[in-house]
Amino acid sequence: MGRGRVFPWRLGEGVRGERMRITAVSATFNSRDTIWRSLSSLAAQDVPVTLMLFDSGSKDGTEWWITTARFRSDLGNLGLHTLRLLPPIPDKVLFEGRARKNKAIEHQLAKVAWECSQNPPDAILWLQPDVTMPNGGLQKMVDAMEDDSHLGGVGIKHRAEVDHVRMGCALYRWEPFAKLAELGFFSQGCPCRWIHQTMEKDGWTLRNLDDVEGTHIEEGASECQ
Length: 225
Known about the structure:
By secondary structure, this protein is an alpha/beta fold.
């Protein structure tokens, strides 16, 4: 697997061709009070996406709500017309506390990689259901990847300074994401830190955009996704 896979618009003479194909993923957990605002911010972006949505055992009615025809209809009114719903993560594979959160994220990542493997997108956008994107934010993330063919992942600014791209809102190029799937997403500790370190070992770069800042709607709303 070579480093620096380019998107279709970089082929030939470098003239832009088709748009980057992006699968946007949001995995909910007790997110009924936040998910709509998060998806509304996604719909407001200028970049079209395919939406993949699934629940991780919510107890507040989120799992039922996102499967209703009304929810799909309302998403269509926002402009998000393509939706794939995945089955929830079974409780038997999860644990309590921080281990539960990390193990759930690992299973979510593996499920997304499997579902996309037959017709892979150019990139995966991971958007937590309690995070909203600023207008034009996704386009800036796409531009960053277009300008740097070695950029494997790009995130947005968060309040806390971290040494890795957080998964609150992050765009990952498909090639290194698929390579991570081959490793099984079995991280030791924080999955997003593991993704950062593993991609860098394989020659990719990752960074956060300082001029794009997301909003965390509700502290802790995605704690056990």
